[in-house]
Each structure stands twice: as C-alpha cells, then as structure tokens.
Amino acid sequence: MKRSMLFKLVATLGAVALIAAACDGDDDDGDGAAAKDCTWVIGTLGALSGDNASLGIPIADGVEFAIDQANEAGDLACDLEYQAEDSEGDPDQAPALAQKLVENQKLVAVAGPYFSGETVETGDIFTQAGVAFSGTGTNETIDQQNFGTWFRAVAPDNIQAEVAAAYIERLGASKVTVIHDNQDYSKGLAEGVLDNLPGVETQGALVINPVESDYSTVVEQVNRFGPDVVYYGGYTPQVGLLLRQLDEAGVEAQFISDDGSKNVTFGEVAGEAAVGAQVTCPCTDPTVQEGASDFVEGMRDAYGEDAPGTFAADMYDVTNIIIEALGDLSGDEPIKEVRQRVVAYFDNADGIQGVAKSYTWEDNGEFQGGPEDIWLYEWDEAEGNFVSLGPASEFID
C-alpha cells in the first residue's frame, strides 16, 4: 500500500508506558467496570478571521459538526475535543499554528488546512509528526511535495481548470481574459484555464495585487480587449471589487470564477454586478443531493439558514473518516500509535462514501476524482447566494 504504511504495531500494549499517551487513565465507576477518562483532539487550521473568514468559517463548521455528532453518539473510547487554529488564510502564520497543533499530545489528526499556500507551508510539520491532515487546498503542485501524511479532500485545480476551460468553450467564447491575484491557488488555477484554451484568443494572465483595491489598470486592459468571457482565479474580497469595477467600466463579458469566490458575501462586495456571475467548484451541493437532507437540516439548526457553506460537506466527511479510524481503538494506545492508525486508515481507504462524495486516495495523497466532482454555480440575487446549476459535466461535451 501507499508509502509502505501497513504498520507493525508495537508489542503488548500493557507493557507500553510510552511518552505522550492519549489517555489519562482509568477510573472505577463503582460497579467494578473501568470507565475511560481520555480525550482525543481533532484539529483544524484555516481562515477563521480576516478577509477570508467567510470562506474558512463554513469549513470549520463542518468539522465541528462531525465532532459534536460523534460525542453525542458516544461510540468512541475517548471523548473528542476540537482545536481550531486561525491562520487568517496567511501562509506565513500557518507554520507556528501547525507546530502548536502537533505539540498537543492528544492530537490525532487535522482536518485542514483550508488554503493551498498554508498547506504547502505546513505539510512537513504534520508529516514529521506523523499526523494525518486532509484539507481543501486545491493547487495541483501540493501532490509533488512528498508529504507523507497528506490526503487532499477535493479534486485538484488541474481538473477544475480543464472543466472551466471546456465550459468556456461550450459557451462559444472567441475572446477570453484571464486574471488572478498571484497567490498559489489563484495563479495555478488561472494558468491552468489558459493552458486549456488553445483554440481561443486569450488575454492574460493579467495580475492584480490582492492588498490593493484599485484595479483600474487591469480594467482598462480588459476593456480594450473586449472579451466574451472574463475568468478570475482568486478569492471573494478581491473578485467582488474587480467585478464591480469591470461593470462600472462597461465590460459586458460573462464573468466566471472559482471556489475561492463562492461565498455568501459575494453579492455584498460586487453589488448589482454579481447577478449572473458563475463559479466552478470541486464541491457538490448537498442541498440537492440524495441522502444529504439530515446533514443539511442539522447544519442549519446548528449554524443558521446559510449553512452548509462551501466545502462544509467535504470536511464533514473527512472528519468522519478520522472518527471512523478511531473506532476500533481502546483509548489505551500511545498517541504515536493512534496517529499511525489514522494515517493507515486513510492510506487504505477504498471508496468510503460520505455526504459529498466517495473517497479514495492515490499513493501520493491525491484525491481520486474527475470532472464529475466539479459543479457549476450562479449568483442568484433573490437567494442572495450562489445556487447550483448542477455538475459541470452536464454542461460540457
């Protein structure tokens, strides 16, 4: 199997008084039965504040919801705790937070990080600690980093880029402008779209500075080119402003972006220009999926009517896979062994069915997915949100 991770577990657990046990010990409950008093921690890392919090918080909600459900069911040997670390989506902040997570001697796995840049910056830390981590960073180069305990939770950018380009061609576009904000995720996806439009006249990739708010130079270039479609790789705080400025300049192209822009705050930033904007996303719509109604209702009861947000279902699934990996453990195992067992469970996953989709991983931790895992969404003013049009494969040849 992958990375030769079929582990020979250490000899008799009763003889192991190793460092960093995951449990605190046993107590007698008065009836002669041993009552466990132990805790396992599932961590998460991502943008929980700042400009990108509206993307990160729905993901964290999905993780927390799975943990709460598991504790309520009470089927595990130990109680679960939730440790959320807020990177603000900043790769520079992420390593210290990852170190904080792995130093917790009750941590069993991490559902995250959420973004590509912070995944690249933290992967070695999690791998060296033997901690499984599975997040929504989609940059296709992550699978080239040799992270031994990484498992991507969604389809990568190369698949999304191919699908987005095929959809643009299906629209009959003859001139396409491609723009991004030069971040790892944004650049990789935008350039992937460009690479998959060989028969179309293209402009770009044009680059905006994500810390600025005046994109007039780029807007003027777009206006002069006169595209049928503008494709943007990036995130809502910038894409909304860009779209508003393109609209004010009289650019009438169909606007298409990505999962980084699929956010309930999109309309607030873009204003009236948001209407009709579309995004692709390696995320299904659980509100229309068979068998997902209990999940949707539970999320809305816990987090409000806008739940579940983008990638909430995917990360709910990933967290439940972590929880399943813990199911056969007694609670007496040292933490190193618990972490190994979780990694091995992901390694050997073969079509684990979740709310969002089925999960299997390649030897390098890459999610086994295809065009069927990319969905198309459009901003609906009446709903005040993006609504799903369906799997993108239904709109392309």
Concise overview:
The protein has 397 residues and is an alpha/beta fold. The protein is 34% helix and 20% strand. It contains eleven helices and 14 strands.
Structure overview:
This protein has 397 residues and is of the alpha/beta class. The chain has two domains: 233 residues, Rossmann fold (3-Layer(aba) Sandwich), CATH 3.40.50.2300; 147 residues, 3-Layer(aba) Sandwich (Rossmann fold), CATH 3.40.50. It is built from eleven helices and 14 strands. It has a seven-stranded mixed beta sheet, with helices on both faces. It is elongated, with a radius of gyration of 22 Å. It starts with 22 loop residues before the first strand and ends in a 6-residue tail after the last strand. The N terminus is likely disordered.
- Structure classification: alpha/beta
Into which percentage range does the β-strand content fall? 15-25%
Topology, number of strands: 14
Number of domains: 2
Q: Which properties best describe this structure?
A:
397 residues; seven-stranded mixed β-sheet; Rossmann fold; five-stranded mixed β-sheet; 14 strands; 11 helices; alpha/beta; 2 domains; disordered N terminus
Would you spell out the secondary-structure blueprint of this structure?
Blueprint (H helix, E strand, L loop, with lengths): L22 E6 L5 E13 L6 H21 L5 E8 L7 H9 L4 E5 L4 H13 L3 E2 L23 H14 L4 E6 L3 H12 L5 E7 L8 H10 L3 E5 L2 H13 L5 E4 L8 H5 L7 E4 L11 H11 L8 H14 L9 H13 L2 E4 L4 E3 L14 E6 L4 E7 L6
Parallel strand pairs: 2-3, 2-4, 4-5, 6-7, 6-8, 8-9, 9-10
Antiparallel strand pairs: 1-2, 10-13, 11-12, 13-14
Helix pairs in contact: 1-10, 2-3, 4-5, 10-11
